[in-house]
Amino acid sequence: MDNNRVYVFDTTLRDGEQVPGCQLTTVEKIEVAKELEALGVDIIEAGFPISSPGDFQSVVEISKAVSEPVICALTRANTKDIDAAAEALRFAKRKRIHTGIGASDMHIKYKFNSTREEILKRGADAVKYARQFVDDVEFYAEDAGRADNEFLARMVEAVIAAGATVVNIPDTNGYCLPDQYGAKIKYLMDHVSNIDKAIISVHCHNDLGLATANTIAGIMNGARQVECTINGIGERAGNTSLEEVAMILKTHHSLGLHTNINSKHIYGISTLVSTMMRMPVQPNKAIVGRNAFAHSSGIHQDGVLKHRENYEILNPEDVGIATNSIILTARSGRHALKHHLERLGYKLDKINLDEVYQRFLEMADQKKEISDADLQQLMGDGDEKNYVDKAIKLMLLQVVCGDPLRPMATVKLKINGEEKEASAAGNGPVNATINAIHEIIKDDIDLDEFSIQAMHGGSEDVSKVNMRVKYNGQSYYGFGYSTDIVNASVNAYVDALNKIY
Ligand code: KIV
Ligand code: ZN
Description:
This protein is of the alpha/beta class and 501 residues long. The chain folds into 3 domains: 270 residues, Aldolase class I (TIM Barrel); 86 residues, no CATH class; 109 residues, Alpha-isopropylmalate synthase LeuA, regulatory domain (Double Stranded RNA Binding Domain), CATH 3.30.160. It is built from 17 helices and 14 strands. Strands 1-2-3-4-5-6-7-8 form an 8-stranded parallel beta barrel, surrounded by 7 helices. Helix 7 runs parallel beside helix 8. The longest helix is centred in the N-terminal third of the chain and has 16 residues. Bound molecules: 3-methyl-2-oxobutanoic acid and zinc ion. The site of 3-methyl-2-oxobutanoic acid (KIV) has 8 residues, from strand 5 and strand 6. Pfam families: HCS_D2 (PF22617), HMGL-like (PF00682), LeuA_dimer (PF08502). Keywords: Amino-acid biosynthesis, Branched-chain amino acid biosynthesis, Cytoplasm, Leucine biosynthesis, Manganese, Metal-binding, Transferase. Homodimer. Pathway: Amino-acid biosynthesis; L-leucine biosynthesis; L-leucine from 3-methyl-2-oxobutanoate: step 1/4.
């Protein structure tokens, strides 16, 4: 075994997808899984099969669609969960069951109402049971970040003896400092007698902004698998970002460690995940944020032009960001549009380029220059993303408003092929439009949350709207964009309706 090789375990589709509003359809998950394969990840955690029929089916379909990476399914330490995972993984060419239980006294007492000895046995029994189905079993010692190191070492030894091939030491609550987490991994490397029979994995959460630092501390002390997500998405403050860890290892040759990641795919998959999950990347996010390679102060611009490395430790092209950009404007042709869509990770065989080009021209007519973010908005709202025909389509929107006019809206929707039209008044143009939609839909839907944002600023800018609506006690999320704020709002509302129906 190459001891300098760090295995990359991606959990975007499991830990990342747990974020409210980020849920993907099975078709979308397959798309992300294929891009993860192209990126070169070693293991894809495809879901938690017992948690829902949708998650189960996603693990089945990803197992069929992807051949190179190991496909992993999460379970708790019980036979029912493990049976479901084994069944969901039946088509995977290379498969892993990821089972585990709490390791901190807090979890043992207040989550399981149990004792250390009982928990040790349950953990080892789960590993033995899972090994009946697969040769590759990973064990997670939940809340290991706050667990007593001596007990943790006994747990790791017991599960390796029971057949675990990988042992995950999660800092579930993002509590540890880098030196504490590094010391924890070192303690295990030094005190677990059978440690050479398994790989130690690091899984860090970002509650204190330390996920990447802790992950690197873990690797520097002997861990050889990193668990991370694209853009660092995940519950609360998120998980470790895959792109940060991959680029740290690529940049710091002195660590002498390497991964199988093809870094040129990083920007494409980052934009794909951000668009599909409707989770914008913060502009100053390391590696993939809009400003990550933007130099605005005169001194820095001058320095970069003289010698790029004066102010850039990474080459943007290494992560798939084109620097000699072909700028997109209303005069650009289909070829330029195609070039940028491909660079952003869109699958051209699934896209009706002529139709996208018409929408691109409409947007470009209203803006001087079309940025990557604009293109993502353009694609994110289209059928190309889901590759399915939407049940509800907006055919017409007419709004009258002003001072002292009473806002009125007329809306025509095509619902499963049938056109329906209604008009309504409201206390503003958006309210009037939503009232008109309600006249057509006649269902009990509440608009729970509404946010509108300009992409960059400026009155000619594209606005994006995020909405949350409630129907039958369940929340649904919608997203829309347009240079017209009423249109963007209706697009978001119709997007949410399509999820309901
Ligand atoms: O953070 C965590 O502890 C986890 C485990 C389920 C692996 O995600
Ligand atoms: Zn986690």
